[in-house]
Amino acid sequence: xxxxxxxxxxxxxxxxxxxxxxxxxxxxxxxxxxxxxxxxxxxxxxxxxxxxxxxxxxxxxxxxxxxxxxxxxxxxxxxxxxxxxxxxxxxxxxxxxxxxxxxxxxxxxxxxxxxxxxxxxxxxxxxxxxxxxxxxxxxxxxxxxxxxxxxxxxxxxxxxxxxxxxxxxxxxxxxxxxxxxxxxxxxxxxxxxxxxxxxxxxxxxxxxxxxxxxxxxxxxxxxxxxxxxxxxxxxxxxxxxxxxxxxxxxxxxxxxxxxxxxxxxxxxxxxxxxxxxxxxxxxxxxxxxxxxxxxxxxxxxxxxxxxxxxxxxxxxxxxxxxxxxxxxxxxxxxxxxxxxxxxxxxxxxxxxxxxxxxxxx
Length: 361
Hints:
The chain is α/β, with parallel strands linked by helices. It folds into two domains: 11-151 and 288-330, Ribonuclease Z/Hydroxyacylglutathione hydrolase-like (Metallo-beta-lactamase, Chain A), CATH 3.60.15.10; 156-283, Metallo-hydrolase/oxidoreductase (Rossmann fold, 3-Layer(aba) Sandwich). It has helices at 59-66, 156-172, 186-193, 208-216, 233-236, 251-254, 271-277, 291-301, 313-322, 340-343; strands at residues 11-13, 16-19, 24-26, 34-36, 51-55, 71-74, 79-82, 85-91, 99-105, 108-112, 139-144, 176-180, 201-203, 225-226, 240-243, 259-264, 281-283, 305-311, 326-329. Strands 7-8-9-10-11-18-19 form a seven-stranded mixed β-sheet, covered by helices on one side. A six-stranded mixed β-sheet has the order 1-2-3-4-5-6, with no helix packed on it. A hairpin with a 2-residue loop joins strand 1 (11-13) and strand 2.
């Protein structure tokens, strides 16, 4: 059940999370007149709203996905007032331009985190977006995508070293390396970190427009090609091919011939996720906070009240209450990381309490 009261700054509505005092919604899943959008993943940024408020740096990726929209862009920390509610956006560290939404009204401060990742936590980092910034508040609305103790990320440098070694071994054997990754955020993070000297990098048509938006925002990415731009078969056989998960088994992939396939995702922490799909490799790399990261982020806000949205809500709410915090949850439509290509993502999260869930990789 939604954890909301008559005087709450944000409440659950059929359209999404709603601020009655300002008459606007945050990441609504149905069309509304005024929407604040935390980031450009399709479960948070949808078409059909009358007006959008988001970070200025996310404008490129939002328009690449949503087309011509009525968008007001804010710098991080810039304050606007809507209906007497003071609004500011603060880095979430998830993807380019991702933001937490700080709302202040009537003596209350609420922060809605959207999706977030703690760069620097446990030696991990994400150089393709502004790092997460803790924001003090009375109430923190948090995701819980990886809200189980089994999810603990290794340092990115170790994972990328494994990706490079896999790619090099495949190139030496004359095989293309098909690396499945969400087209927004994960693909660019991988591209920024791999060793481009190993061979050419080919990307799917869903990835390249977002690469362009990242480059326009000043993020350094290596040169990338579309498959149709590579005429020499010998080059394709040394290529790293970055594409969304839904291409697995498609005609688009068959052009690369005999290739090795892998998926980069936090879900690869569980052995069963890779085994169910017959993938050659699984690389554990996520743009969401792991279990210790969620705990650290929540503690840093100083919030006495926490509301959990998507993910393992019940587990997180129970843990929060054990820490003496007031905790509840909002039912939302969040949870699918990418656009239509990932709605058909063949690798899904385990159900809470499943055997796979209890088997860390």
